[in-house]
Amino acid sequence: MSDAQYSLTLEATPSSRERVLESLAWWEALGWLRALDAHFVRFLAEHDAQAPAEVLLAAALASHQLGRGHVCLALSRALAAPRDVLSLPPLEESAPQAEVPLPEDFLQGLDSAAWAARLAESPLVAPPGPGTTPLVLAGERLYLRRYWSAERSVAAHLGERLGRPLPVEASLAEPLARLFATNATHDDTPDWQKVACTLALRNRLTIISGGPGTGKTTTVTRLLALLQTQALSSSAQGLRIQLAAPTGKAAARLSASIAGAVKDLDVGDDVQAALPREALTLHRLLGARPDTRRFRHHAGHPLSLDLLVVDEASMVDLELMAALLEAMPAEARLILLGDKDQLASVEAGSVLGDLCANALHQGYSPPACEVLERLAGISMTPDAVCSPLADHVVMLRKSYRFDAHSGIGALAAATNAGDVAAFRRAWDAGYADIDWLAASRDQAAIERAAVAGYRALYRRIAAGATATEVLERLGDFQVLCALKRGPWGVEGLNAGIATRLWREGCIDDHQGWYAGRPVMVTRNDPQLGVYNGDIGIVLPAPEAQQRLRVFFATSDGVRAVLPSRLEACETVFAMTVHKSQGSEFAHVLFVLPEHATPILTRELVYTGITRAKRQLTLAGGDTRVMDSALHRRVVRDSGFADWVAALEQEERS
Ligand SMILES: Nc1ncnc2c1ncn2[C@@H]1O[C@H](COP(=O)(O)OP(=O)(O)OP(=O)(O)O)[C@@H](O)[C@H]1O
């Protein structure tokens, strides 16, 4: 566009730029936009006094999408449903006041090509490539540069790890057979655990996805044993292996289950001794530093390891994945474990889900099938045109935790398949491990059920149980909510449950710091040694004259923290399903909202259900709410899924 045309546009809508800036204040005040988003746009407006309304609006929306898990703003999606790209409450809850401007007011007559053309003209926006503009426009996707760079970095680093298979010694056939000897398959389905292990032997990148109890840890432990056997046969040093997970809770779980699985391995003492037992959080592994986003380890100062296993990889957001991949030595192996069907990370991105998008339907390449046959005796029909990613992804499909008699397993499978009829049949089948408080549409009934669930814990505390004993029982029961706000959400239920426990005398107070208050850390604090997602409980500390401390389980015992030093935490009698990722509980009371809402998706229901190990109680909701949830999928805008799809296209074209 020439300068003359540019000024023409401005003159035609002289006040629209100012109106967008005014709207930010409205939207921020109404909670439709984060303060961060509004600041960002004001900063851009200061730097480019000519920036037109459409560019400022797009910047606000692109920034806002990050808080909702999207890596970028898809222009066509924003045009199709402009209100959906802000955090507007559902219309039935509160109709916007007439004077509040809406995004569509600024988008009239614009299609995505025209919007993109207008963005491309802005000095604030550049096409993909190196540069310093705050925004990058890739096709019809608008990114904040930081996220575009992260996406590029993840794709480039993963791409370098594909293909180039590593040599696998024929001598591993015997220990492989021994380690998987007990994996009898009773039908003609392959032993997917053995497939995963065999393929991983030749890869620098392996992704093993599977639902709860499908044997991800068991498989990776056997893989580590094989690789360490191979390494120790040629060098006394063996491999430097590290285990990690995104949260402290997930790292503790991985440590416990790997330690258990290592004990059961049929391998020599030298291999046993050279296997790791302790997992770190990713932040600790990478060297998080206070007050900076940069880690101690990066491309210029890579991690000192030969193999890294990351559990709960679905929780790793795009930026953390980029930081991790940049810090990985190029020749080291990376193994990602996770459940592709779970909710994606709280922060933007859905890397694991995107990588596994086609895993269920893909075959393996002819060379991979040859290795499977030769080393593991597994015959598979090769797929000559499979994606370069195919040999790096294996889905474990059989749960050893939820068998044919498990209602939790049946509900999880039906939810994943979006099969409403199967979901209903699971309720009618009379499974002992699931029940539905469907009749109770009142909050009081749910609170009573919650208090009944927690009573045993408070009896133990009253009987003088030690912090270690209390922490061991913290996972016995947990209330999970789909929503944050409202009587059916975390805020309403936390207050209600605390009040009831207080009235019953289980806790001395129900506000502030009181003994028996369960808390979750919401921000990493490396100095204090607590990390986002860690769950602890407030108890009187005998070693501190019974003054209150917050106790957390650590790999070597318990950590006691002064309540006043814990800056970011929240009470978790009830927690959102999002926050429960990476944790499991013996009995879960899963509270569903009264009405269908866009937040309630198949992935959320699946994640909520599968947090329960032995007993699941659903509360609230009804069959209409479930039907709507099972039909709604989480979609996260990013260019990464396109990169994965393009890998497939390359081979097929
Ligand atoms: N092939 C198998 N045969 C029999 N039992 C198995 C097999 N694989 C795993 N298990 C058992 O199933 C349980 C779950 O296994 P594991 O912890 O490896 O699964 P996971 O997928 O890592 O689970 P989680 O959902 O906890 O992450 C363990 O008790 C394990 O011993």
Task: Write up this protein.
The structure is a single chain. The protein has 653 residues and is an alpha/beta fold. It folds into three domains: 17-139, Arc Repressor Mutant, subunit A, CATH 1.10.10; 168-400, P-loop containing nucleotide triphosphate hydrolases (Rossmann fold), CATH 3.40.50; 433-523 and 565-621, 3-Layer(aba) Sandwich (Rossmann fold). It has 26 helices and 20 strands. It has a six-stranded parallel beta sheet with strand order 7-6-8-9-5-10. Strands 11-20-19-12-18 form a five-stranded parallel beta sheet. Strand 19, helix 24 and strand 20 (612-620) form a beta-alpha-beta unit. Helix 10 packs parallel to helix 11 (216-234) and helix 10 crosses helix 17. The longest helix has 20 residues, at 443-462. The protein is globular and about 75 Å long. The chain binds adenosine-5'-triphosphate. Adenosine-5'-triphosphate binds next to helix 11. GO terms for molecular function: 5'-3' DNA helicase activity; ATP binding; ATP hydrolysis activity; DNA binding; exodeoxyribonuclease V activity; single-stranded DNA helicase activity. It catalyses: ATP + H2O = ADP + phosphate + H(+). Pfam families: AAA_19, RecD_N, SH3_13, UvrD_C_2. Its EC number is 5.6.2.3.
